[in-house]
Design a protein that fits this description.
By secondary structure, the protein is an alpha+beta fold. It contains 14 helices and 19 strands. Helix 6 runs antiparallel to helix 7 and helix 11 packs antiparallel against helix 12. The structure holds flavin-adenine dinucleotide.
């Protein structure tokens, strides 16, 4: 048994969730089985990955936490078969590197790679890519430990696998995962600004033309920063000074931002918004590509030519040399790992995200930007409550019961603000109500900020079809008949 500390005071990465519980830290499967069995005498028993969730998923007040920090080994690499088997506590960062080193690419990994695989799968975590579902959709096999300390390996033939793949920590503690991967590929990325009006008009066309689509509105008037990508057989561009400096810059922003922004947001909220706009407009992506490149009726080919023009506008020899070394690249070929993890620094933030039907995405994006602009403007109800970004990504439909992308092509829209921002939680509550009323059957991301003071998941559960919901419940009951893994937030899912 590896009881590390009794009555351990746990908190999530930004200190917005706290709970006191016994902490176990198993180092292998044998430990894990013993620990889960012992801990089940003191429920709730919750798995703890990196603690990066904002919602009260990990909370185990008066119960037990099973940390996967030491379960981070690579167990098997099958290059020919395209699978990777790893322990669930491995971070996405390590996993993505192992995949790349072995000529493989992960399905839809999240943008930030500090989280553990177990934590990302448990909430149906996703990245970008319309050819891909969520990470959970690439599970081939899961080995779980049930509350009585039994180990079970769930394969495609086991009906419980689908529910356990986005299991919220309710269908056993995941010990290991075998993931299906693709052969590693490169992606040609195109970056630039577009007016919101134009984007909304042409979003469907854009989604047809590009597999990887990311949209960011940095509170800057009518401009949206877009990052578009398609697979390519071209080799990845070698890093230039600019791309190397981007990594350093992101990390510097993270360090400086981490120290400066949280105290700033509560004392000088209007200054924070202006500062963030300045950082994104002038430092992160200066206006080199700042054109509305999607005029009415522009085809994908025309758009491509636009980017080409940007790319080759320094066509003489000196210009070319300078460009190769320092120019921010409007078009860039990157490997599949870099396609997913393109931001190297993060602020301590609060994020609320909803999965909506891609068919309704243009309208929901437009109204979300309007809602954020109106509700957080100076003098508005939630003045300055959002200071980072509104972000959208697109993935294929998931086939898993309580996965927010289940059953439909999905657009994820999130609102991101810095920790400590005044009015942030009341605004995010209002954002929750706003999204739940939109067409598009919005489902909240399980791991992001939930509506405050409303821990009941009844309303959210209705967003999943009855069959999915029943299937999840019956599998949950068969794995955890004594409800040892159920915490306060997840009570509703017991039914
Ligand atoms: C900066 C940042 C960026 C993010 N970007 C994205 C993104 O791009 N896409 C996205 O989808 N999400 C994103 N998220 C959300 C994140 O993916 C989820 O919150 C994820 O659950 C965090 O993983 P974790 O290892 O920290 O898990 P934790 O927060 O520790 O746990 C989350 C849930 O997983 C369960 N769990 C953890 N390990 C196991 C296990 N071994 N077995 C069973 N259950 C387990 C826990 O019990 C809990 O219910 C982001 C979060 C942050 C902080």
């Amino acid at each position: 048994m590896t009881l590390k500390q009794r009555d351990y005071q746990w908190q999530n990465w930004v200190g917005t969730q706290k709970s006191v519980a016994d902490l176990y830290e198993p180092v292998d499967l044998v430990d894990l089985k013993n620990d889960v069995k012992t801990a089940s005498a003191k429920p709730p028993v919750r798995a703890l990955g990196g603690g990066f969730s904002w919602s009260a998923l990990v909370n185990a007040d008066g119960g037990s936490l099973i940390s996967t920090a030491k379960l981070d080994r690579v167990l098997q690499i099958d290059r020919a078969g395209g699978t990777l088997a790893v322990e669930a506590g491995i971070t996405i960062k390590e996993l993505a590197q192992v995949a790349l080193d072995n000529g493989l690419a992960l399905h839809s990994p999240p943008i930030f790679d500090g989280m553990t695989l177990g934590g990302v799968l448990a909430v149906g975590g996703h990245g970008t890519g319309q050819g891909l579902g969520t990470m959970s959709d690439s599970i081939d096999e899961l080995t779980i430990v049930t509350p009585d300390g039994t180990e079970r390996t769930l394969r495609n033939t086991d009906p419980e696998l689908e529910s356990a793949a986005t299991g919220l920590g309710l269908l056993g503690i995941i010990y290991s995962v075998k993931l299906r991967c693709e052969p590693a590929y490169n992606v040609q990325i195109e970056k630039g600004y577009v007016s919101n009006q134009c984007l909304v008009t042409h979003l469907d066309d854009l989604l047809e033309s590009y597999e990887f689509v990311d949209l960011y509105w940095y509170l800057s008037g009518d401009r949206v920063w877009v990052r578009l990508g398609n697979r390519t057989s071209a080799p990845a561009d070698p890093p230039n000074l600019h791309s190397i400096s981007e990594v350093a810059r992101d990390q510097l922003i993270q360090l400086a931002g981490g120290a400066v922004l949280p105290p700033l947001v509560s004392r000088f909220p209007d200054l924070t918004q202006r500062l963030i706009r300045f950082i994104f407009d002038k430092v992160i992506d200066p206006p080199a590509n700042n054109l509305d490149f999607l005029p009415q009726s522009l085809t994908a080919v025309d758009r491509h030519r636009f980017f080409e023009r940007q790319w080759t506008r320094f066509s003489n020899a000196v210009g070319r040399a300078v460009r190769t070394v320092v120019e921010p690249r409007a078009i860039e070929v990157v490997d599949s790992r870099r396609a997913a993890h393109y931001i190297d620094g993060i602020f301590e933030s609060l994020t609320s995200e909803f999965a909506v039907e891609t068919d309704k995405a243009a309208d929901i994006w437009r109204s979300t930007v309007e809602f954020v602009r109106d509700e957080t403007a100076p003098g508005a109800r939630y003045a300055y409550a959002v200071n980072l970004t509104v972000h959208a990504r697109f993935v294929n439909a998931s086939a898993l019961p309580l996965n927010p992308a289940t059953g439909r092509k999905t657009c994820y829209i999130e609102v991101v603000t810095i920790v400590g921002t005044r009015h942030a939680q009341p605004f995010l509550n209002a954002f929750h109500d706003f999204m739940m009323k939109r067409p598009g059957n919005a489902r909240p991301h399980w791991g992001k900020v939930f509506k405050d003071n409303d821990p009941s998941l009844d309303e959210i559960r209705l967003r999943y079809d009855d069959r999915s919901s029943q299937q999840f419940s019956s599998h949950r009951r068969s794995i955890d008949p004594s409800n040892a893994l159920v915490n306060k937030l997840l009570e509703t899912l017991k039914k």
